[in-house]
């Protein structure tokens, strides 16, 4: 019996690039690199705050492209499913009309991440309101909302690889220190 291999978050990238990330993790260098680049954790702590955050971004870029019935952090989403997060469309009959109900759920682990990573995942989920598949139009929409989208997704995936290897959350301590200071 072979143990199940851990998810490969870097599978879509060139092998040499993925190997470089793993080497940085082994050398103990990746954590500092990421923290230098993204020093702070964001402050979106509740489902309500996330809802407001998502709605503001949606209003800015997508106008009234479908309405969102629910936006929430979801602790059951441990791994990045379906590429990155989960987006559901529930169709149900309301009166005579078939109404689409859209939800955006963000894995709870994103609570303790830098603002750039939260933005990336929200941009990803918002783009799915218009494009279901991860196709060219989808990524163009992501880039329209966040020009640095591809770099952010790569850095996030590097962090997830680090998290898998070490179990250490990089931005948890940043928040703990910050909240101690305000007491
Ligand atoms: Zn997706």
Short description:
It is built from seven helices and three strands; from the N terminus they run αααβββαααα. With 183 residues, the chain is an alpha+beta fold.
Cofactors, ions, other ligands: zinc ion
Low-confidence stretches: none
- CATH topology (fold) name: Zincin-like
Q: How many structural units, i.e. domains?
A: 1
From the 3D coordinates, which CATH architecture would you assign?
Answer: 2-Layer Sandwich
What structural class do you assign from the helix and strand content?
A: alpha+beta
Shape summary: globular
**What oligomerization state is this entry in?**
single chain
Q: Roughly what fraction of the amino acids lie in strands?
A: 5-15%
Word description of this protein:
Helix content is 48%, strand content 15%. It has a single domain, classed as 2-Layer Sandwich (Zincin-like), CATH 3.30.2010.10. Helix 4 packs across helix 5 and helix 4 crosses helix 6. A hairpin with a 2-residue loop joins strand 2 and strand 3. It is of the alpha+beta class and 183 residues long. It starts with 14 loop residues before the first helix and ends with a helix. A 3-stranded mixed sheet has the order 1-3-2. The chain has 7 helices and 3 strands; from the N terminus they run H-H-H-E-E-E-H-H-H-H. It is globular. Bound molecules: zinc ion (ZN).
